[in-house]
Design goal:
heterodimer, A: alpha/beta, Rossmann fold, about 35% helix, B: alpha/beta, 5-stranded parallel sheet, two-stranded antiparallel sheet, 7 strands, globular, disordered N terminus, binds thiamine diphosphate, binds magnesium ion
């Protein structure tokens, strides 16, 4: 199987979908001539031309809203936010228009748009550029939220996202862009709402997604070597829809749950999952559900301190040790 | 406005061929003492040397995140901020080092901020894009394109509300003019006669996108739709910047009228240090500007012509600016980092006080 970076895997999905469906259009700041701020769309302008790969002005509310409008007539725009942090400029378009138009029209209008870009901390770009917005997006019924942790999933989920008839918010990670993985060639898709079991185990379940899957795997390996712990890791892949069944099955096996997320803990994805698990599997739990997330403050710039603010392997290990 | 004026394309010769300033006799410039002229020059040199010194630090990995250099644009911040009175305020975007030095911030805490040290101007919390000095009427340093423009309008609102005769200068790039918030701010300012100047530093590019590829129509002219006056001026000549902004500021302070000021300028470096700057402009364009319009060279020539600067003084100013940036690096190197315990300080006013003023749990901590 070919080995691709996460970045290349997304590019492969975008390219294949551009070739498959003439209604797919890619737009965003610097996606075309500059080859993308993070080079996800590198080479695509040259290959597919300026009708399909379009540079926009710095007008997020305008171009995201325009994409939503175009999608109502059957265009399938894939809009890049250079950082998901800039979604706030287009927030009204996303939560009022994209999320609600189907509902408010009594199901008459579909909105098959994809909005994609990186949403992560850890690169010292400060509070304005480090938002992790999956919880805020997932809070809005009508939106779907995708958070791939590896190259193969990124490709398959992106293809699913583009073909989906609802607005899909696709959250990447600048630190993962260079991560390599085996990626099947050709037309691979993954259904939304199906988590992956990234590691099987019986002592404790970690539910996680995105880059935190990597921290969790590293922590699990460390503790297997040093203490013989056998930890199961569930990679959610999508936040909405959420694969609750896989979480519950794992908790029924391990009876202990740690949620690891690059999220501030107040009203996070983890809060939501913890609520569901105690509602639906209270009797399976042998310990309180714990969460490891971002320390509850805006993102600090200072490089060595930011490393401590977001989840890292040491903090995941500390979380596991409180449960085992 | 196209980046290359026909005139600059012709004057390819060395910097000494630069013509004397046509704005030296403007009252606001004629009134300057020699010492004040030298100070304007010195500030520009200090900005440039500071930023040049940042580069190797960034390349050595000691500065994280983004570093947007202002090199080439110095006359804009220095000219504008030199006009500030005690009730005038400034706000800008992420390309904020020049304005910081221009308003009088000390370069030591500026460098320490880049290092992410606790002695930084924002305690290592903001980084390069988020410098602030409210004591100097400098309100940042803002990372979201266009986001500072409504804030600048708010500074003007507050000045007017409190009955002061001041004005706010809200700086943005040529790319920022396409943000909706900018247009909403224009309308508010014009509708309510707020003393704000919307200063567009038009360096021709927003990241890798030229003005022609991002903006319909002329940038300054958009003011007309809001019944606002607009000015267009060159940003390579600090006298011209001062003459233009002085007129606009006086009008803002005395008649409480907003205006748009579009200043034609140029950045020599990539958008940020991470931008290889290979796809969207050619070297010749940069060299051309450097040779014919470099703001420091232009003003140096002017002051030599005026017999205010001598070769010895030029040398001394430069050496001192280099030494200053070296001292800033030493200060930053020697300073400690914040600790994890600092992460949750400065989030709320009330939690920074000895006694909480509200009840309930405000932070949610985990292992
Ligand atoms: C809302 C928002 N969108 C995009 C960005 C990314 N970005 C940062 S600077 C920039 C270009 C801005 O260009 P301009 O306004 O001309 O200012 P200059 O960099 O030339 O000083 C872009 C696209 C951002 N910071 N905020
Ligand atoms: Mg610009």
């Amino acid at each position: 199987m070919p080995v691709l970076t996460y970045r290349e895997a997304i590019r492969a999905a975008l390219s294949e979908e551009i070739e498959r469906d003439p209604n797919v259009v890619i737009m965003g700041e610097e996606v075309a001539q500059f080859n993308g701020a993070y080079k996800v769309t590198e080479g695509m302008l040259e290959k597919y031309g300026p009708k399909r790969i379009v540079d926009t002005p710095i007008s997020e509310a305008g171009f995201i809203g325009m994409g939503i409008g175009a999608s109502m007539l059957g265009i399938r725009p894939v809009m890049e936010l250079m950082f998901w942090s800039f979604y706030s400029v287009a927030f009204d378009q996303i939560v009022n228009n994209a999320a609600n138009v189907r509902y408010m029209s009594g199901g008459q209008i579909a909105c098959p748009i994809v909005i994609r870009g990186p949403a992560n901390g850890g690169t010292n770009v400060g509070a304005t550029h480090s938002h992790t917005v999956e919880n805020i997006l997932a809070h809005h019924p009508g939106l779907k939220v995708v958070v791939p942790s590896n190259a193969a999933d990124a490709k398959a989920l992106m293809k699913t996202a583009i073909r989906d008839n609802d607005p899909v918010m696709f959250l990447e990670n600048t630190i993962l862009y260079g991560e390599k993985g085996e990626v099947p060639e050709g037309d691979i898709t993954l259904p939304f709402g199906r988590a992956a079991i990234a590691r099987t185990g019986k002592d404790l379940t970690i539910v996680t997604y995105g880059r935190c899957v990597l921290h969790s795997l590293a922590a699990a390996e460390t503790l297997r070597a040093s203490k013989g712990f056998d930890i199961e890791i569930i990679d959610l892949r999508t936040i909405r829809p959420l694969d609750v069944d896989t979480i519950l099955r794992s908790v029924a096996k391990t009876h202990r749950l740690l949620i690891v997320e690059e999220q501030r803990p107040y009203c996070s994805i983890g809060s939501h999952i913890a609520a569901i698990v105690q509602e639906e599997a209270f009797d399976e739990l042998d310990a309180p559900i714990l969460r490891v997330g971002t320390i509850d403050a805006p993102s600090i710039y200072s490089p060595p301190v930011e490393k401590q603010q977001i989840p890292n392997v040491d903090r995941v290990i500390a979380g596991i040790l409180r449960l085992l | 406005m196209s980046k290359k004026s026909p005139e600059s394309a012709e004057t390819k010769s060395d910097a000494c061929a630069v013509k004397p300033s046509t704005h030296a006799s403007a009252p606001v410039n004629a009134a300057l003492s020699n010492a004040q002229r030298i100070e304007l020059y010195r500030k520009m040199v200090r900005i440039r040397r500071f930023e040049e010194r940042c580069l190797p630090v960034y390349n050595s990995g000691k500065i994280g995140g983004f570093l947007h250099l202002y090199i080439g644009q110095e006359a804009v911040a220095v000219g504008a901020c030199s006009l500030m009175g005690k009730d005038d305020h400034v706000i800008t975007a992420y390309r904020d080092h020049g304005h910081a030095i221009a308003v009088g911030m000390d370069t030591k805490p500026l460098m320490a901020e880049l290092y992410g040290k606790i002695t930084g101007c924002s305690k290592g919390k903001g980084g390069s894009m988020h410098y602030f000095a409210p004591d100097l009427n400098y309100w940042g340093g803002h990372g979201i394109v266009g986001g500072q423009i409504p804030l600048g309008t708010g500074l003007a609102y507050a000045v007017k509300y409190q009955g002061k005769k001041g004005a706010a200068m809200a700086f943005m790039g040529d790319g920022a003019v396409n943000q909706g918030a900018v247009h909403e701010a224009y309308n508010l300012a014009a509708l309510w006669d707020l003393p704000v100047l919307f200063v567009i530093e038009n360096n021709g590019y927003s990241m890798g996108t030229s003005q022609e590829r991002s903006s319909a129509g002329e940038l300054g002219k958009r003011a007309e739709a809001y019944d606002m006056k607009f000015y267009i001026c060159g940003g390579h000549d600090v006298y011209e910047v001062r003459a233009t902004l002085d007129a606009a500021l006086t009008r803002a302070r005395e008649q409480s009228k907003p205006a748009v000021v579009e200043i034609d300028t140029y950045r020599y470096r990539g958008h940020s240090v991470a931008d290889p700057d290979k796809t969207y402009r050619d070297r010749a364009e940069i060299e051309d500007y450097r040779k014919t319009k470099d703001p420091i060279q232009v003003f140096q020539n002017q002051l030599v012509l005026e017999k205010v600067l001598t070769p010895a003084l030029i040398e001394e100013i430069d050496a001192e600016a280099r030494a200053e940036s070296e001292r800033a690096v030493e200060f930053a190197e020697a300073s400690p980092f914040p600790t994890a315990a600092d992460i949750q300080k400065d989030v709320y006013w009330e939690t920074d006080q000895p006694k909480r003023t509200s009840e309930g749990r405000i932070f949610f901590n985990q292992p």
